[in-house]
Amino acid sequence: MSNITYHRATQGDIQTLVNNRILFALELSGDQDENLVQFLREQMTSYFSNATADHSCISFIAQCDGKVAGIGSVHFRQMPGNFKNPSGKWGYIMNMYTIPEFRRKGICKHILNLLVAEGRKYGVTAFELHATEAGEKVYIQEGFIQHKEPTLRKILTS
Length: 158
Known about the structure:
Pfam families: Acetyltransf_1 (PF00583). It comes from Candidatus Defluviibacterium haderslevense. InterPro entries: Acyl_CoA_acyltransferase, GNAT_dom. The chain is an alpha+beta fold. It has helices at 14-29, 34-53, 107-121, 133-141; strands at 4-8, 57-64, 67-78, 89-98, 126-129. It has a single domain, classed as Gcn5-related N-acetyltransferase (GNAT) (Aminopeptidase), CATH 3.40.630.30. Helix content is 38%, strand content 25%. A hairpin with a 2-residue loop joins β2 (57-64) and β3 (67-78). The longest helix is centred in the first third of the chain and has 20 residues, at 34-53. It starts with a strand and ends in a 17-residue tail after the last helix. The relative contact order is 0.15.
């Protein structure tokens, strides 16, 4: 296998981010209604276009021999500070996906470290993420810990 290269995503990479996020979502959730997939594709295109332009989200893409091997993103948000993170500057790591044939080659770890380094440049003082069971080990090895606060959600439907 040739060398894996990494680059920061630009507007020209939006569809690559969207396509791979859809692949990741389908891998996690199974087949979905095509109308929902299309709606998500449009929503994600809008999100990544705007967030890439205003730098509220930064993404990296790994490639091997011209093929996408993996992606990852960090979304920046400012919240009121607290005792654990007084600055209130957070980076939410998301969109971490490695194409199956490229897994176990350090791509996730490398992208994660690029995202954290980029976040530091933006003044981020804490990062968080949600991990799949398969990916959890990588994040723990890179210093992420399970926090005790539970995550609760309420999904609003029409």
